[in-house]
Amino acid sequence: MVGIIGLFKNIFAKTNHGYLWLIVLAICFSVLQGCASTPKNGDQELDPVDPHEKFNRASYDFTDKIDRAVFEPVVNAYIDYVPDPAQRSIGNFYDNLAYPNVALNSFLQGKVKQGTEDTLRFLVNSTIGMFGLFDMATHMGLQKHDEDFGQTLGVWGVKPGSYLFVPLIGPSSERDVTNIPIGLVTNVLFYAGLAVGTYFAAPLTILGAIDKRARLVGPMRIRDEAALDPYLFVREASMQQREFLVHDGKLPLDLYYEPFQDNPFEQDGKKQKL
What we know:
Number of domains: 1
Distance between the termini: 42 Å
Radius of gyration: 20 Å
Largest sheet: 2 strands, antiparallel
Shape: globular
Number of helices: 13
Order of helices and strands: HHHHHHHHEEHHHHHEE
Strand content: under 5%
Structural class: mainly alpha
Helix content: 55-70%
Strand order of the largest sheet: 1-2
């Protein structure tokens, strides 16, 4: 599946930046509007987690077809012919380009110490690490984190809302889709494209999309081999991962059971002691 940054950088490469925000907002609006207009299937009750399942499945099928026809052959060649050390350096480079988003959201979540370390990590890898090709910051004890604006909203109590599968981007939610524009404007490649132009940004955009897809080879192979319903497999896995990230791996007790079933630790209206 094409990553969030990859899609919008590709849009940027083909458009004047003066219209970029209009394009981003139009895409987000069209996705949400399509979800809102999804009709009910007769009198069948809608899944409270995925009330727009018909729209989401259509988006999933469309994205999967594009992926198998376009990206999969290219990514297989990339994995076969590009040495592993080079693949790691390419991955480090693109992670570093997007890392200001991590630092910003660390601060927004009130993690001042982590935000400071994330800022230092970006500066170290951008200089000593040769624009991020080498992850020197990890060797200096500056850990890599994973934060974004959707997680920030979750930390501050915003519920994920309905599940969304955004075409060509992948699984998201009404809350997490807000990270699309934030992730765009905090990516260094966005400003490099503005300064240098399309001829510089376009090749890097394409390589970034290939790199992002290559990292998903393992999970997608598991999906294809193990899942009876790949759509549900992706949905459940992505939702669980997002909750894990929002809570920094320390999930509250009520997330360990099915959220729309009765609490197993309650009986006859009284909570059972653990």
